[in-house]
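Two entries, shown back to back:
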Amino acid sequence: MTIDYQRLKQEINAISPSVTRDLEKEIKDLLDNCGLYYKCFCRVKTSASACEKIENRYSKGKTNYKLQDILGIRIVVYFKKDIPLCEKIITNNCEIDNISKDEEDDETFKPQRINYVCKMPPSVVNNINSELWTYPIDRTFEIQVRTIFSEGWHEIEHDFRYKCLDEWTSNYDLSRILNGVWATLDSKRLINRRLV
């Protein structure tokens, strides 16, 4: 399949911000009914980022690949103990396509990644130009669940490590140092919580 990336960028840039606002409102209404302390952020993936991701997968021979996070919601809860309730709300109210979740263990120091890929409600699909679906883009959206503490770290790690993976593969020592910084901060947070 040959992809006209210029046309794809135009289609993505034409997605109205109201589409994410409507989706965000649906999610917020569910969370507000439970009394959670949280922040919620929505976005349409930038056209440059979407095209880069698709092109990257296709260059690696993944010709069946479909982008699943053209729309994204990040739910940032104040307290780690609220994550299971947040996940229950998502699974009870959204049609889940797949879940990507890091299991925590005592040996690994990194923030937990919890990402749900959900089917877009028809109200959202119908408010996006149907031509977009002729490209390798799925009718799904991603919900990421984070704590405020891990949210800050994910922003750093996403921009400095994930977006530059090739530069990190030959710098194992620096990757280990970065993980050590996370471990130190997380340990201090846990100790302070126990002292309060």
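entry 2 starts here
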Amino acid sequence: MDKARLDFLKMDILNHPLFAEDTSISLTASQRVPSDAHDDMTHLAGSIWVNNLITLIGRNASGKTFAMKIVMGILELLLHQKSIGQTHLNETLIGQQPISFHVYFYGSDKLIYRDDLTITSHPNQAKQWLIQDERIWSKKVTKSMTRKAIFDFSTAKLVMDRQKLDGFQQSLLASDDSLMRSLIAQHHYQTQKVFDTFMFTNANFPFFHAADGQVPSAILAYLDPTIDYLFIETGKHDKAFYRLKFKQDEHEIIDNNFATIEYYLSSGTVKGITLYQYAIQALQSGGLIFIDELENHFNLAIVHTFMEYFSNPKINLHHATLIFSTHHADLLNDLSRGDQIFITRRLHSRITLGRYSEIADRQDINRAEVFMSDYLGGTAPDYDTYLKLRKQTMDLNHQDGAKNSIGSGTPYGQH
């Protein structure tokens, strides 16, 4: 008998100093789900549908990467049973005041959970965080449950309370470990895998693991048709060994230093090889994969290919979810639903996450044009700022030109 599965639904960030109050990110559908147009969604139960594609879009420094890291950090803590210090939370928890989260999960045994988590800084050790309080609530899923009722826990049952553990139980739980590990063990849940690709955002080395060490020929042909094969083998002491051959060359390139191999490969090929592996693992397990700046080093055709892996039900058999950030507004028109899009903005020095469907979703308006026009506010570079930058650039050029002409003996252009 298959294990019941535990899937992430939503996270509320309640009092983080860099986020607006009650900031949320949710995978669940907030809009109506047509009966004939939901290939890029997963039906869990009743009215609970999950988007298989989620994007965060915003201008530079709007908080896209930071928001994704804090979600990954919480999921690593709760689902992967890591301690706080082993997750992205070390990079995203700041300040001296406690920070709280409400994290919602769906169990395939028809239960929804909410983990109310409060994390506080260590009183004596800088940059260390502890779990101050944690309560886990549960409620049953019913067929008549509406979309609005999914996250209403006013009548839910309290199933675990960190403050009510006995001495023996507390001794088994570290101060930076979550109660979720106990819940998962009790219910024998298979947890959703989380794939973190952030170290490869600007990848300068490929990471691929296969039984024979060979990177699949199809992905190589797609990324660079001139490559015949690429083997990434592991030798003694886990030291990588590379073998690369191009179709027009008789001899292969062999080296244990990837810098040699990298000379012959484009950045897009390197990143594509790595992300392909993670995408396959996510698709096989029905996991969550986080990719920062999906378009970085790629042309749009490759970006669309990665998106299709998760929107095509013939490929995404296990209902994996791709969560990615982008600067490319045109990608908004390639998503089928407004509730798949989160607009990140900095308002009054705080990060906000707003669903496009709740801000300005109209089917007769081009989403990319709305975003770039700054109709939403805070999504396009400020024009006054652009003019100031333009003037400063001109002034610097003039200063540099004046310096270069001093002591030259003759005016520029005269000989």
